[in-house]
Design brief:
single chain; 295 residues; alpha/beta; Arc Repressor Mutant, subunit A; Rossmann fold; six-stranded mixed sheet; three-stranded antiparallel sheet; 15 helices; globular
């Protein structure tokens, strides 16, 4: 074939390997989703020690006929760094066992649904979020603003507003992520909240971040600005005030505005120029947290 001319067999095989890697990359995330839905991290955690395949099958209430398939799933997730395999020490009569890694430890659930990131996995890998990626080429050929709108005919917030079940899952996923990150932020960058008496968390979801701030700094009056369909579902408010509204219409007055932005767009697209000069960014890995003092 013409495209192979002048290329060594090694080059061609490496090129095909890269191509195959991209083709099957979705298996990594779907395997992770499967593990969360089956409850594998919780089963290993509850076992209290590395768990064998047969014990894992029993803990998950799976048919013994699924043993080879579960073994393949675990092999995939071990390769991805989600779980670890403990060798039997050369004893052929002993099964290898599986244990948690720092990654899968984050997926262990507790009585508090916002503790642990398994619900974040479920939310982000939900068909509502994943399916739009099948419409990317159609989006490029259309006038729609996003692939999401091509797939669903509207934006994400409209979908959460009309689908209570997905809205609940999405909010819990965002809350778990916010609580996890806020505990790290307060530990390493807590001084950014010193000296303020009031704060509004813009787009603060179910208030996980604001609640953590309020508990760490009782003197700071915290409030959350969120869309009405989110605020209407909130049951646990503690010492945080929830305000139904839209950040693009108005933001309640406070000493500081708290905004969590991943890979932030130009600030001019979020706030008018007079406010931009007050932004102070605290970078925490891929999370950017900015507080705004408009005074």
């Amino acid at each position: 074939m013409e495209f192979t001319e002048g290329k060594s067999s090694d080059e061609l095989m490496r090129a095909q390997t890269v191509l195959w890697t991209h083709i099957f990359n979705h298996i990594d995330s779907m395997s992770l989703k499967c593990a969360v839905e089956l409850g594998i991290p919780d089963a290993i955690h509850s076992h209290g020690k590395p768990i064998t395949l047969s014990d894992l099958l029993s803990a998950l209430s799976l048919s013994p006929a699924k043993a080879p398939h579960l073994q393949r799933l675990m092999r995939m997730l071990i390769h991805s760094g989600i779980f670890a395999q403990n060798n039997n020490g050369g004893d052929d009569n002993e099964e290898d066992a599986y244990s948690l890694t720092p990654v899968s430890s984050l997926l262990v659930k507790s009585n508090d649904s916002t503790t642990g990131l398994s619900v974040l996995v479920a939310a982000v890998l939900h068909p509502v979020i994943v399916n739009p990626f099948q419409s990317m080429s159609a989006w490029f050929k259309s006038d729609e603003p996003t692939p999401f709108s091509v797939e669903h005919g509207c934006g994400l917030w409209e979908v959460t507003g009309r689908d209570p079940e997905f809205n609940k899952l999405f909010n819990e996923g965002m809350a778990s992520d916010a609580k996890f990150l806020m505990n790290i932020l307060l530990r390493d960058c807590g001084d950014v909240f010193q000296g303020i008496e009031s704060l509004v968390d813009v787009g603060g979801g179910t208030g996980s971040a604001a609640i953590v701030i309020s508990e760490a700094f009782p003197n700071v009056k915290c409030s959350v600005l969120e869309l009405p369909h989110v605020v209407s579902t909130i049951k646990e408010k503690r010492d945080v005030d929830f305000i139904a509204g839209d950040m693009f219409d108005s933001i309640p007055p406070a000493d500081a505005i708290f905004l969590k932005v991943r890979y932030p767009p130009p600030l001019s697209k979020l706030f008018p120029p007079p406010l931009i000069q007050y932004f102070n960014f605290v970078r925490l890995e891929c999370l950017y947290v900015c507080t705004v003092d408009p005074s």
